[in-house]
Amino acid sequence: MLSDLRTVHPPASRLPEVNFDDLGFGNIFSDHMFSLRYDDGRWHTPEVLPYGPIEVEPSCVTLHYGQSVFEGLKAFRGHDERIRLFRPDMNFQRLARSCERLCIPALPEQYFYEGIEALVRLDHKWIPSKRGQSLYVRPIIIGTEGLLEVRPGREFRFMIMTAPVRAYFDASASAIGLKVEERFTRAAPGGTGVAKTAGNYAASLYPGECARDEGYAQVLWLDGVEHRYVEEVGAMNIFFRIGGKVVTPELRGTILHGVTRDSVITLLRDAGEPVEERRIAIDELVEGIRNGEVTEAFGAGTAAIIAPVGKIAYKDDVVTINNGEAGPLTQDLYDQITRIQLGETNDLHGWNRVVALEA
Ligand SMILES: *Cc1c(COP(=O)(O)O)cnc(C)c1O
Question: Whose C-alpha lies nearest to ligand 1, atom 1?
């Protein structure tokens, strides 16, 4: 469908400059990016361009009013040398919901998949092969109209960039510490918490910095009404093992529908492990950690996949979970998801989308 895709290559690949033993997260980008424009009521001109600066007007609506949405997914290289995208259909559906909330016109599905696949094919040498590393894929849609009046823009640009990224999970490293946020909130009922949009992240920066100043890796967000129920951690969904059951906050409109969250729940239910989606009061949680009922905690999100939580600070209390180490279920879920992503085990639910290198 995009066989006529206009492609402009950079004068030289930057790949030889990349040290794959020292990758960060989204600080270096592969040679190409995908671009698609919207104006006059339609999406047009799909093209692949060298990754690099773009021009927008200083009055661009995204810069002033944050009319933008994004996604995050990963491409993996297996031992069989096949390239797999993990559950891109979930990302597309979420992008569609985010677009609706931000008054951004719906993106035709074909551009999402074919844009990603064209990039992965062109820059396949950028996909790392060390276990845990991957090619992070970042689609974004920004309003590009220059307009200071507050109304939805009428011009947009969809772009996709890719970045080789490091492994996050390291069972030998200690689990992360979280600070329960009592002053600030990430999302309120009726707000944009359920959309993957820039403004949610802008609002989270200051609380995140305060937590880091106090020595905590991330914020544990509570609900915006009572500051009583656990919602999310940083940019991950959160899970607890309480009395043998796995529990995660239910989706009530303020929590992002994580692809990793859904994958964890599905894998646990496949194994006959009960998973409860319900409200979790912070008092109940801290008490459960203190009396030993809560035996594991972990965050779930595309970047880290699974991030063990070893410490939670609430009011004047600091409680430790599983001696501050990754628990057995946490480790097992990380291993299971990684094996599926690398094609080392049966992909029972058809989550992987294999990208053929020859189009
Ligand atoms: C992206 C994101 C997540 C994780 O979602 P995944 O699809 O698993 O990557 C969780 N919370 C927030 C706020 C996010 O933006």
Answer: 235
- How much is the pLDDT for 4? 75
Q: Which amino acid is at 134?
A: S
Q: What would the pLDDT profile of 316-345 be if each residue is shown by its tens digit?
A: 999 999 999 999 999 999 999 999 999 999
Flag whether the pTM goes above 0.85.
yes
Question: Hunting for tokens 């200071």 — which residue is that?
Answer: 148
What's the rounded Cα separation, in Å, for the pair 20 and 124?
14
Alpha-carbon span 63 to 65, nearest angstrom: 6
Q: How many angstroms is it from 72 CA to the middle of ligand 1?
A: 8
Longest CA–CA span in the chain (Å) reads 63
Contacts with 143 (C-beta within 8 Å, 6 or more apart), sequence order: 60, 61, 62, 65, 67, 68, 104, 152, 153, 155, 156
Q: Which of 256, 266, 302 maximizes ligand 1 atoms within 8 Å of its Cβ, making it the mutation to test the pocket? A: 256
> Are the CB atoms for 172 and 45 separated by under 8 Å?
no
Whether 192 contacts 69, CB under 8 Å: no
* Dihedral over alpha carbons 236, 78, 20, 328 (to 10 degrees): 40
Does ligand 1 have an atom closer than 6 angstroms to the CB of 234?
A: no
